[in-house]
Amino acid sequence: MNDMQVLRRAYERENDTRDRRSPHLRSWEYYTIGASRDDMRRLLDEGFIIIALKTANLTKYKLSEKGRNFVWATTMEREFAKIPASSVLEAMDLVVGFDDIKDAIAKAVESRRRINFLLEGPPACAKSIMLEGVRSAVPDAYIAFGSRTSASGLSEALFEFQPSVLLLDE
User: Fold this and answer.
1) SS3 letters for the chain?
2) Which end of the chain has less neighbouring CB within 10 Å, N or C?
3) Which has the closest alpha carbon to 141: 118, 117, 153, 157?
4) Who contacts 82 (Cβ-Cβ below 8 Å, separation ≥6)?
5) pLDDT tens track of the chain, all 170 residues?
6) What InterPro entries does UniProt report for this protein, alphabetically (predicted)?
7) What residue spans define the domains of the chain?
8) Structural contact between residues 127 and 97, judged by C-beta atoms closer than 8 angstroms
9) What pLDDT is recorded for position 78?
10) Rounded distance, CA 134 to CA 34, Å?
11) pTM metric for this prediction
């Protein structure tokens, strides 16, 4: 796991709305966010995290102001990265026909709203190629193949990668 992933998980843990404690009391241990002790030492040295509590058996950490601002800025960059419909349509150029469906999918990706599509049809009518086109146009899209993906595997992938677009292919 890289430093950005560690910082992002720490940020999510500190801003978890299910945690009823006051935000300034929310701290975490290195293993709860999947980091190593070396990661913690490095982030401490760089000033991204601070020690919130230290006992003989336990060390709890919090993001410093520098760490919180860094994660927030990169999260906002990711949130506002818009994918134009034209690039999605260009990625689906291999598919001949189905222009109305391709246009609807491209506009849905551009709008960044939660929209679901079910592509149904006989075998070999380019459903998988459309999904692959969307995956190639959207940098953080995740594609899963139903025959090789379990529910727990899909849940783990969603928490780990946090894709903006999830594509499921039979």
Assistant:
1) CCHHHHHHHHHHHHCCCCCCCCHHHCCECHHHHCCCHHHHHHHHHHCCEEEEEECCCCEEEEECHHHHHHHHHHHHHHHHCCCCHHHHHHHCCCCCCCHHHHHHHHHHHHHCCCCCCCCCCCCCCCHHHHHHHHHHHCCCCEEEEHHHCCHHHHHHHHHHHCCCCEEEEC
2) C
3) 157
4) 110, 112
5) 788 888 988 988 888 878 888 877 888 898 888 899 899 999 999 999 999 999 999 999 999 999 988 888 877 665 556 788 899 899 998 888 899 999 999 998 888 777 888 888 888 888 889 999 998 888 888 888 877 788 888 888 887 777 878 888 87
6) P-loop_NTPase
7) 3-79, 83-169
8) no
9) 59
10) 30
11) 0.53
Which CATH class name applies to 3-79? mainly alpha
Report which of 120, 116, 130, 125 is spatially closest to residue 165, judged by C-alpha positions: 116
N-term to C-term CA, the chain: 30
- Give CA–CA dist 146/118, Å, rounded: 14
For residue 68, the one-letter residue type is R
